[in-house]
Amino acid sequence: MTTDVRIAARLAEEAGRLLLSVRAGGCDDSTALGRLGDTESNTLLTTRLAESRPDDAVLSEESADDPRRLEAERVWIVDPLDGTCEFSTRDRVDWAVHVALWEAGKGITAAAVSLPALDVVYSSDTAVLADRVTEGVRIVVSQSRPPSFAAGVASALGAEVVPLGSAGAKAMAVLRGDVDAYLHAGGQWEWDSAAPVGVALAAGLHASRIDGSPLRYNESNPYLPDLVICRPELAERLLAAISAENAAE
Ligand SMILES: Nc1ncnc2c1ncn2[C@@H]1O[C@H](COP(=O)(O)O)[C@@H](OP(=O)(O)O)[C@H]1O
Ligand SMILES: [Mg+2]
User: Fold this and answer.
1) 58 in helix, strand or coil?
2) Which of 20, 92, 97, 147 could bridge 15 with an S-S bond, Cβ 3.0-4.6 Å?
3) What's a GO biological-process term for it (predicted)?
């Protein structure tokens, strides 16, 4: 395991533990609980990165965007709490911490996703694509904002649509073989997908924009509105079905 991956995994785990304690502390106001989780986890991640990688830039959902990252060779792209809504909902386990390293000319070179409520950390050096555990194709989508074409794509593939919170939780569900694909469109940011995509690609999954083009990170505008992560053998059929649905819409 490289030192960068080890740092990513350790920080994702440490922030996850902090979030579990914030959650256990209790708070009747779910919006305030989510905000506290976002802030505390972001402080931990940015402090630790400044200590262990002082020369690197950071792009975080919860920090002001520092334009110096556009000149940097190494940028950590972090989402301190992905699935804030689910984190704030009692007994939900579909929320995550994302830590990824982007390097100029290389893309995402180290990544970790922790699912603290499930006590698991996935990293780009150790993640392994599991065998499928279900019959038939299953496509996981956002519970609150599923793509408009999800039902049409599912119908074309004879697939089942499964709603779940958090981009990290959904991507790791594909890795675990619980589902076959994660489909998203209509809005998202680089921090939502950088670490999940880094882990997914390292494990041999397909990950791209919904038009099949590569996902690019550390762009001046970090808006990255759509993606598909799926088992490699499904990619061609899934991208063709998305394209057909979009043409028909
Ligand atoms: N239409 C949209 N516009 C912007 N962000 C979106 C979005 N749909 C989903 N996301 C973000 O993607 C992440 C996963 O969403 P979902 O659980 O709905 O699949 C969430 O990140 P955060 O929880 O970090 O804000 C959510 O805010
Ligand atoms: Mg997010």
Assistant:
1) strand
2) 97
3) 3'-phosphoadenosine 5'-phosphosulfate metabolic process
Task: Tell me, in angstroms, the distance from the centre of ligand 2 to residue 54's CA.
Answer: 24
Q: Ligand 1 pocket test: which of 85, 139, 142 has the largest number of ligand atoms within 8 Å of its C-beta?
A: 142
Furthest-apart CA pair in the chain: how many Å? 51
CA 120 from centroid of its chain's CA atoms: 14
Taking 70 as the threshold, does the pLDDT of residue 31 lie above it?
Answer: yes
Domains of the chain: 3-123 (3.30.540.10), 138-248 (3.40.190.80)
The atom of ligand 1 lying closest to the CA of 79 is: 24
Model confidence at 135, pLDDT cuts 50, 70, 90, reads confident
Q: What is the pLDDT of residue 217?
A: 98
SS3 assignment, position 141: strand
**pLDDT tens-digit series, residues 68-114:** 999 999 999 999 999 999 999 989 999 999 999 999 999 999 999 99
